[in-house]
Amino acid sequence: MLRKLRLQAGGLAAAFLGMLALPVAAQQPEFVPGQLIVGFKSAQALDKAVDDLKETERSGGLSARGATSSSVGIERLSDRSAKISFDFRARSGSRLAKGAELKALQEYGELLSKDPNVEYAHPNWVLQLRRGLVKGPIYLEDLPPDTRVQISSNIMPDGPDDPVFRRGLLWNYLAPPSGMNAMSAWSMGKGDRAIVVAVIDTGLLPNHPDIKGSGNVLKGYDFISDPVRKGDKNATGRNADPTDRGDACPPLQPKATWHGSHVSGTIGVAGTNNGVGIAGVNWQVSVLPVRAMGRCGGTIEDVAAAVRWSAGLAVPGAPHNEHKADIINLSLGIKLACRRQLVGALLDAIDAARKAGTTVVAAAGNQGVDIKGLTPAGCSGVISVAAADQRGYLTPYSNYGNVTVMAPGGDLHRDDDKDNAPDGIWSLVAVSKDHPAGVAAYEGTSMAAPHVTAAIALALAAKPELRGKPDAIAALLRRSVVKPPSGACVKPCGPGLLDAKRMVEPEVFTSSK
Q1: Is 364 left (phi over 0), alpha (psi -120 to 50) or beta?
Q2: Per the domain annotation, does 180 fall within a domain?
Q3: Which residues have a Cβ under 8 Å from the Cβ of 392 and sit 6 or more positions away?
Q4: Same domain, residue pair 106 and 241
Q5: Do residues 305 and 223 touch, judged by C-beta distance below 8 A?
Q6: Which residue of the set 52, 115, 162, 201 is catalytic?
Q7: Residue 121 sits in the same domain as residue 194
């Protein structure tokens, strides 16, 4: 099939290169130039494609209508998928314009998909973090000295001694509608290190004072395959060090957010009840840091590989993951509908992870749009999480629609409890001279998703019979929600608010006669 592209100037190759002058659609997602991710219907079809492309390159590559690609490479990504790389140049030797190249790759992918042996063919898209920076961040040191203190110890005298908890800033752990009811859930269990949570994100800050020595961190992996392209000069490709090296992306995001550490802190990577920093929802849990997002995002190739590896599945070139994840947290996404032809690489990985028994949780996103046009939040089988403020209302920034649940995401424009502190989600960031506590408040669905991930981890610790059963876990989550206040959702926001206590406590089922 692929060999014929070289030989037939009037066939697919000519059609592909003839599209270079076509205009590209506005506001298309970012992509890696010259790369297509192709899924095949069988391992045999992939083997044949590899042979065809090798012959194509030996014979001079692709050429038609004044543009050429002498380099036509293929790299296996799984037993049925591969990355095909081109280096298309104009007759002058210059690269194609970005818009023209994207249009060509998309059209070429559509043509490849007409082959009966091909399931999908799409560009190597760049996904973005569901950044908790709609406004902010607010650092602990930024708060005025008259911020109300000791509220949490009054509500829960036997609660953890972590300063941020004692100061009363973790409103998100209160009962609904304010929070997700972590404090009440703790009376029945505080987690278990047998439960593994993979956080596919920017990595982790292992030497943070509230993380180092916590006992809640597993050995993870860095799946960023091309760090130089993303400006991360401190890394050398995929490796066994998932340390967060920053995710700045000027001019939109000039400073690093330490996003993965903030997400992981809520779940429970910190040393809760250690007198330092924050308290996590889980006091004991095993967080598996998986770095797939660097400067300016991460490719769908790398995120898909990270999902597979986290679920205990094989990834070419990566070591076997000895700690298969019970839950994967994805506080990231892309503005593309979850259709196989558009995002098949990630959809395949999510489906494979769920078949392997791993639950996938995804942030709904912060664009104020319906999740039906988004990935992974709009994918079937994914637990999608919208953000609520301290009143239990859908936040103005949160995406909406057929979401699974709402959870605390914060709103830094509000102070509903009148404590002189903006209503953000407080968690871990890098320690610096100006911010020695290494704690900051963000807002966003990135912050909402780990509350749900953490609640599921608490539930699995209390109900181990649910491990490996994503559908049963999703059903428990939906049964356990609390109805939002009247007027909380001017747009569809799912069945209700997260309640960890109801997920952890024994259920009593009655039957009507």
Answers
A1: alpha
A2: no
A3: 176, 177, 178, 406, 484, 485, 488, 497
A4: no
A5: yes
A6: 201
A7: no
Instruction: Answer with the one of 422, 439, 461 that is the final residue of a domain.
Output: 461
Closest by alpha carbon to 332, among 259, 255, 430, 231?
259
Which token pair is 117? Answer: 């042996």
CA-based angle 186:187:188, to the nearest 5?
85
Rounded CA gap, 511 and 182, in Å? Answer: 30
Which letter does DSSP use for residue 61 in this model?
A: -
**CA 179, CA 163: separation in Å to the nearest integer?**
19
Catalytic residue among 411, 446, 480, 499: 446
In a domain, 175, yes or no: no
Q: Looking at 415, 446, 461, which one is the last position of a domain?
A: 461
Q: Are residues 103 and 200 in the same domain?
A: no
Local confidence band at 130 (pLDDT 50, 70, 90 cut-offs): confident
Copy the structure tokens of residue 271.
């040393």
Around 336, how many Cα atoms within 13 Å sit in the side-chain half-sphere?
25
Confidence of residue 21 (pLDDT cuts 50, 70, 90): very low
CB atoms within 10 A of CB 476: 20
248 in a structural domain: yes
* DSSP secondary structure letter of residue 19: T
pLDDT of 74: 86
**Do 203 and 317 fall into the same domain?**
yes
- Find out whether 451 and 266 touch, Cβ atoms under 8 Å: yes
The one catalytic residue among 259, 286, 370, 499 = 259
259 is catalytic: yes
Give DSSP secondary structure letters for 368-424.
SSBGGG-BTTTSTT-EEEEEE-TTSPBPTT--BSS-SEEEE--BTT--TT-SSS-B-
Cis peptide preceding 145, ω within 30 of 0: no
Query: Phi, psi at residue 394, to the nearest 5°?
Result: -60, 130
Count Cα atoms within 13 angstroms, Cβ side, for 76: 18
Instruction: Quote the domain boundaries for residue 397.
Output: 138-145+189-461
Can you spell out the DSSP letters for 446-470?
A: HHHHHHHHHHHHHHHHH-GGGTT-H
Let me know if 446 is a catalytic residue.
Answer: yes
In this predicted structure, what is the pLDDT of residue 474? Answer: 98
Give the pLDDT score at 354: 98
Euclidean distance between the first and final Cα of the chain, in Å? 62
Distance, in Å, from the CA atom of 176 to the CA atom of 290, rounded to the nearest integer, reads 31
